[in-house]
Write a structure and sequence with these properties.
Helix content is 19%, strand content 39%. The chain contains five helices and 25 strands. It has helices at 5-18, 316-321, 327-365, 373-381, 387-394, and strands at residues 32-35, 40-45, 54-57, 63-66, 69-70, 77-82, 86-91, 100-106, 112-121, 128-130, 136-137, 141-151, 156-161, 164-166, 170-176, 181-191, 200-206, 215-220, 223-233, 244-253, 260-263, 274-277, 280-283, 292-300, 303-311. It has a six-stranded mixed beta sheet with strand order 1-9-8-3-4-5, covered by helices on one side. A five-stranded mixed beta sheet has the order 11-19-20-23-22, with no helix packed on it.
Length: 395
């Protein structure tokens, strides 16, 4: 007599109940985590078993395998190993709906069970960066948004600019109730700067389902800005008769137009000696008339900018004279001599002025009764003895 599959299943269950094993027997299971689309292996073991049946059931309490007999028609479910001590099955192409609590039953009296929770990780989709319009003008505000869907649990988003992480960002997480997954977005907000031109901005999605290999979206920035100008001289000490080359370096985006050279606010005065070739100004046979301020101006559709260079042509003879005596030292000595001379003159003047005052006083004392200056000096002292000395003094 041949039994139907349903009757056979009930028969095995009845046999499992009737055959009672040791009261210390318990099935052993482990929780399993698998990435969506992968394969989950569920294993149930019994250390001591006296031929008691094992069974795996899904979260809906549907029997998957009873010993080595498949009970549910699902081509994704296969038997890996069946013995009195172990029942292992595999579930391939796992979906989020397969997540839940699976049960391994040991048909003793009473039936003993062990639970294993199957966690299915939702793989985040490849991220996309939106919000970038090319080109961006310097000083404009940029808002770049990176978005990814389908992650479970929610993925983590990080921003980088030329491999340097940017921390100040906004993060938003939204749950998809129908699939138990998450849509995650992050916004990078900053002002466009010329130094950002050509920079690579990347959005990196990290998730445990990616096996330490993040998903990355990249965007190369294109920033337009006014020219930056500087002049480089080929001669740091130009002399008469020599030549000089002034190079105007201009950097901007779009690329600046040919530069404009001027001298002291006007055109170059001597086109025969002052030759402009692109960004280069060459001046030959320098002389003193070439002294002045040279301006280089560059412009592009964004704006214009300029810079100046003051040219001073030196006399080679004056330069050669510097190899002789130290003029600074000589000048110092001359200054000291002049100072000492002035001090001497002042002291001498004060001395003469003092003695002149004495003479005038003596003269005044004898002037009242004297008919002349000689007599006044003699009378001032009231003595005739020293008259000749005073007369000599007066002379």
């Amino acid at each position: 007599m041949r039994l139907k599959p349903g009757a056979l299943l009930r028969f095995y269950s009845l046999c499992g109940i009737l055959i009672q094993g040791s009261q210390g027997q318990f099935p052993l299971t482990q929780n399993v985590t698998v990435v969506e689309g992968g394969t989950a292996n569920l294993t149930c073991r019994v250390d001591q078993n006296d031929n008691t049946s094992l069974q795996w059931s899904n979260p809906a309490q549907q029997t998957l395998y009873f010993d080595d007999k498949k009970a549910l028609r699902d081509n994704r479910i296969e038997l890996v190993r069946a013995s009195w001590h172990e029942l292992s099955i595999s579930v391939s192409d796992v979906s989020l709906s397969d997540e839940g609590q699976y049960t391994c039953s040991l048909f003793t009296m009473p039936v003993k069970t062990s639970k294993a929770f199957l966690t299915v990780l939702g793989v985040p989709e490849k991220p996309q960066i939106t919000g970038f319009t090319s080109p961006v003008m310097e000083g404009e505000r940029m808002q770049l948004t990176c978005k990814t869907s389908g992650s479970k649990p929610a993925a983590d988003i990080r921003w980088f600019k030329n491999d340097k992480e940017v921390k100040d960002v906004k993060y938003l997480k939204e749950e998809d109730a129908t699939r138990k997954t998450f849509t995650v977005s992050s916004t990078l907000d900053f002002l466009a700067d010329r130094n950002d031109d050509g920079a690579v901005v990347s959005c990196r999605v990290d998730h445990e389902s990616l096996n330490a290999t993040p998903q990355i979206a990249m965007q190369v920035l294109e920033i337009h800005y006014t020219p930056l100008v500087k002049i480089i001289s080929s001669n740091s000490w130009p002399e008469e008769g020599q030549s000089i080359i002034l190079t105007c370096e201009s950097k901007g985006k779009p690329v600046p137009e040919p530069v404009l050279w001027t001298k002291d606010g006007g055109e170059l005065p001597d086109p025969e000696r002052m030759v402009v070739n692109g960004r280069v100004l060459s001046i030959s046979f320098l002389n003193k008339t070439d002294n002045g301020t040279y301006r280089c101006e560059a412009k592009n559709p964004i704006g214009r900018n300029s810079t100046e260079y003051v040219l001073i042509v030196h006399d080679p003879n004056a330069l050669a004279g510097q190899t002789g005596p130290d003029h600074a030292l000589i000048g110092g000595i001359v200054a000291v001599v002049v100072f000492v001379t002035l001090c001497s003159i002042i002291l001498l003047g004060r001395y003469l002025a003092r003695h002149k005052g004495t003479y005038l006083t003596n003269e005044a004392k004898g002037a009242e009764d004297a008919p002349d200056a000689d007599t006044a000096i003699i009378n001032a002292e009231g003595s005739q003895v020293n008259a000749e000395e005073k007369k000599e003094y007066f002379i």
